[in-house]
Write a structure and sequence with these properties.
alpha/beta
Length: 265
């Protein structure tokens, strides 16, 4: 007999690490993984934020949730923290490479080489470093799942006319390039690690509603066939549990797009 379908989504007995897991999508994914039965490690550059989130999620889910301070652009910190997570929990089954950002937004003509280098360090190099350290643990065990958080900005060019007349710049060229690199890194990691029983996938989302100016939202929402943009606490949770679980046991090298149909136009 096959597995009961709902059991395929359970993560009991597994340990997940979510980088940048203290707030926004990272918090949502950490919460979802814990709700599905996993014990969870979350990292943040700000230990107090990680501690507060870990305490709240442990209380609400009944799972073990531990906080760690991590600057993902620092290779030595990545090696140390992932090593400590494995030591503290005894194993690492799921890595969610969520941490990433840009220091500030500006038009192409104002972007500097330093901006470019930082954006790639924070979004692409950090993903490589964390995946490498996780793989070193997962390969001998012959199992594991890596989920890289990318963006639809890494899939296509952007219509920046929605920012006309607003005090907004939007997604930068370097961010789009960095997330595009994450998507293709995911594909090749899946090929490299697949023979060792490790699945690697990415998630690319459209924008989430977070107190942006209403004139911008009025332009942006209709660009999505579903008529809305992402909602925190809801729209990414099912996707990360699916990719982390046995429900996706035959899914690897895939970029799962969560965009309300934005990329289907």
């Amino acid at each position: 007999m096959g597995h009961h379908v709902m059991e395929l989504f359970r993560l009991n007995g597994r340990t997940a690490l979510v980088t940048g897991g203290a707030r926004n999508l990272g918090r949502d994914m950490a919460e979802a993984l814990a709700e599905a039965g996993a014990d969870v490690a979350i990292t943040s550059r700000h230990l107090d934020q990680a501690e507060a989130t870990a305490e709240a999620l442990a209380s609400s889910t009944g799972r073990t949730v531990r906080p760690y301070q991590l600057e993902v652009t620092d290779e030595a910190q990545v090696v140390d923290v992932i090593g400590r997570v494995i030591s503290d929990f005894g194993q690492l089954d799921v890595l969610v490479n969520n941490a990433g950002n840009i220091q500030h937004s500006a038009h192409l003509e104002q972007r500097t080489r330093e901006d470019w280098d930082y954006t790639f360090a924070a979004n692409t190099t950090s993903t490589f470093l964390c995946a490498r350290e996780a793989a070193r643990h997962m390969k001998p065990r012959g199992t594991g799942t890596i989920i890289n958080i990318a963006s639809i900005s890494g899939m296509m060019g952007k219509d920046r006319s929605i920012y006309d007349g607003l005090d907004m710049v939007g997604v930068t060229i370097d961010y789009s390039a960095a997330k595009g690199a994450v998507i293709n890194m995911t594909r090749d990691l899946a090929c490299y690690l697949g023979p060792h029983g490790i699945r690697v996938n990415s998630i690319s989302t459209s924008g989430f509603e977070r107190n942006q100016p209403e004139p911008f939202l009025e332009r942006y929402r209709p660009q999505h066939p579903l008529g809305r943009i992402g909602e925190d606490g809801k729209d990414i949770k099912g996707a990360v549990v699916y990719l982390a679980s046995e429900a996706a046991a035959w899914v690897s090298g895939h970029n799962l797009v969560l965009d309300g149909g934005f990329s289907a136009w």
